[in-house]
Write a structure and sequence with these properties.
The protein is α+β, with helices and mostly antiparallel strands. It contains three helices and three strands, in the order αβαββα. A hairpin with a 2-residue loop joins strand 2 (about 85-90) and strand 3.
Amino acid sequence: MEACEKGTLIGHPITGVRYVLEDGAAHAVDSNELAFRLAGLYALRDAYHAAGPQILEPVMSVTVTAPAEYQGIIVAALNKRKGVIHDTEAADGYVSVTGDVSLNAMFGFSTDLRSATQV
């Protein structure tokens, strides 16, 4: 349980894990509480990395519409935030850029976009 309090990928608790101790033996010479704690910790780490853990985060579908002259700035701003651009449409002097960006990366996006485009 102690090993699940802080995950090895980003430091958040590991949840949804079930483990079963199948065997264990104590020796009078080299067995103590610390040895068993470390053995459990290393066993969980090995199993955790072998399972191939993934970090899941919310993703927003984003559509940005602006004058066509700012298309490059918009695409660069989304790429800077590690967004995936799906479509770009231009009509009547305006451009709409559609893509997916993680929610965490979107904080402050509108302020940065206004500063870059002065719109």
